């Protein structure tokens, strides 16, 4: 993998981590940052010379995820930002990693949901920094599912770049 592709992937990971923090703090996922992640996919596709058919397959998966998430949004089961972020994450991972991504995102999402449920009655004003951070996950404001999408998706997006670096000796 080229240095430029690695840099793009690590940049996407950083943006996703920023989105996770933003979601916990504000329960919003800025569209501009999500669009940037999508645009970086196409730049990376050019850098790694991804075939047109592969790009189309990634796009079709992203569209299918967006349509499914839009239905969940209409049913008030998912936020609009989460729907957009899920679509962009699956744009990046493609069909070959869709099931591992879904599994990882679901496991992390379960953890986030359980923390949100456990902290739903916590007041935001806490004496310690750790408890204040935990109170930010309170389910009283909704579940910050962008955290699961960012951590699960980001790890699978960055992994192809990081693994070769870890195996170098």
Tell me about this structure.
The chain has 169 residues and is mostly helical. It has one domain (3-167). Helices cover 76% and strands 0% of the residues. The chain has helices at residues 3-26, 31-47, 52-74, 80-93, 98-118, 129-135, 146-167. Helix 1 (3-26) runs antiparallel to helix 2 (31-47), helix 3 (52-74) packs antiparallel against helix 4 (80-93) and helix 4 (80-93) packs parallel to helix 7 (146-167). It is globular and about 50 Å long.
Using only C-alpha atoms, the radius of gyration works out to: 17 Å
Q: Roughly what is the average pLDDT, rounded to an integer? A: 93
Order of helices and strands: HHHHHHH
Enumerate how many helices there are, as a single number: 7
Helix and strand composition category? mainly alpha
Helix share of residues?
over 70%
Low-confidence stretches: none
The tally of domains stands at 1
Residue fraction in strands: under 5%
Tell me how many strands there are. Answer: 0
Terminal Cα span: 17 Å
Characterize the biggest β-sheet. none
**Shape, per Cα inertia axes:** globular
What's the SSE blueprint?
Layout (H helix, E strand, L loop, with lengths): L2 H24 L4 H17 L4 H23 L5 H14 L4 H21 L10 H7 L10 H22 L2
Quick structural summary:
One of its GO terms (cellular component) is membrane. It is built from seven helices and no strands.
Entry keywords:
169 residues, mainly alpha, globular
